[in-house]
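Hey, quick one: can you model this chain's 3D structure?
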Amino acid sequence: MDDIFNYLTDLFDDVPVPEVKITVDHDLDKEEFENVKELILSTPGITGVDFKGTVSVNFIEQIKCLLEISPLVDDKSVEKIVLVNFNRKELEKLLNLNYVNPETWSIAYKYEDNSFKVALLPEVRKIEEYISLISSSLKKNLTPLELIKELYDFVKLLEPKEEASNLLQDIINTRTASSYGFSYLLQELLARFNIPSYIIDVSRDKKLFHSLLVEINDDKYLASGMYLFDPESDAVPKHSYRNDLARHVNYNFFALSCEEVQRLVYGDKFAGIMGALMISDEEFGFRKYRRRKNIREVTKIENTFDTNYLGLKEKINTTKNIPQDMKVKLFTSNVKKELIKLNKNIDVKHIIKENYLVKRQEMFIEEKKEIEPVDIYDI
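Sure thing. Here's the predicted structure for all 379 residues.
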């Protein structure tokens, strides 16, 4: 095949070849397909193919095969981009096709806010393999909080790095993450279990941090309402511990109510949409935020939790703090066997319990402080 391609391209060496880019946004009928087939098999200047709209995986595979067998197309020089909002099953089917040049394919792996998140095919495969590996390792019949705790354990093993990339493929490849990256990976993992969440902004010492807002109803642990998860604040950098056990014992920022965040000794203040939601006068808060930032974020958080602005505010205000004994029960009853085996001479469950209770006393003041929420633009 290469000899034929080289021979034919030699014939055209002195002839300018116009670049041709093909766009396919639906499964073509017989006549349309024959036209595209003839184009691919007889045109030497094809540089790219974009797949959009409602085109199916089966049809993408047909075009892929034509590009790979065409005597006039150098498949490794053709950029293919798939911008289609496939469901999980169809995306897996697309990823599992046999590609001659996988590095020339860019695949949309998520659709959000009217835009696609895209990565090269090998990177998307790594993302799916990583998440599938985590999902398959989880126990069956977990309650919502137990499931989140298991995923939280994976995420907080990332290495904190302020300037780390926020691309999902980079977080997974480097195992490093910024404050946003920690929450983003946890959000992606939760999404695979159909648990909606929203990344919120928090100001601490005039720097912006992030937490994940999740609605939880878990009777076993007396959890009901909107809770915040900050895996980065529970992560331990590699340079600061002697024993790997230290990376597994922190749950100080796990499932905090908004009221608890307002009592943190660090002086955390909600910013952005959460800042508006925490203003006691809901109408004033909504108007204030609407003036400073696009209404799109309000719509996004409403859609995430399937309620309107006032409904969300009500859910936050009626959220009950999870009792400490319930949290201790959660943290110590689901300790990985591997962790216990690696620390035979240590009572791992006792260390987790004591670490949580001691840090709890250090982290919170008795009364909720009346804090004026900050605007994200003031940071």
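One thing worth noting: The chain has a mean pLDDT of 88.
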